[in-house]
Design goal:
The chain is α/β, with parallel strands linked by helices. The protein contains four helices and five strands. It has two domains: 60 residues, no CATH class; 35 residues. The strands form two sheets. A three-stranded parallel sheet has the order 1-2-3. Strands 4-5 form a two-stranded parallel sheet.
Length: 125
């Protein structure tokens, strides 16, 4: 996907959690939104939430919106699911595979309701 003409994005979704806030904010439009969803190494007090907590604090004083995406997962259902998926004969139902450049088309296809299975975005060849 090409960069916007001014080189800044209206929305950045950071799921990896490995870029400094300053770098992400530089790439963000003056009134853009940064959503942090990934953890990082962190420190002994806040663990992987340190950067996210700093972003929430900074957001109160900026025109840019810095938000967090938090999910809480129970481990037992994930272990059960992993056991099921690890059995022979279990394969995902994939309807279509799109190259990453066609993500918008993939979303329109998904929203159309005519999909049977998963829609996959191929990141690399």
């Amino acid at each position: 996907m090409p960069l916007p003409t001014d080189g800044r994005f209206d929305v950045i979704l950071d799921l990896a959690g490995n870029r400094p806030l300053s770098v992400l904010r530089e790439a963000l439009a003056p009134q853009g939104t940064l959503v942090l969803g990934g953890g990082e190494g962190g420190d002994r007090f806040f663990g992987g939430m340190g950067r996210t907590l700093r972003a929430a604090l900074w957001s109160m004083f900026l025109k840019q919106r810095l938000a967090m995406l938090v999910g809480f997962v129970k481990s037992e259902p994930l272990r059960s699911l992993a056991d099921i998926l690890g059995q022979p004969g279990v394969t995902p139902a994939v309807d279509r595979v799109f190259p990453l450049e066609e993500a918008a088309t993939a979303m329109r296809t998904l929203v159309s309701g005519q999909v049977r299975g998963k829609v996959v975005l191929r990141v690399a060849a």
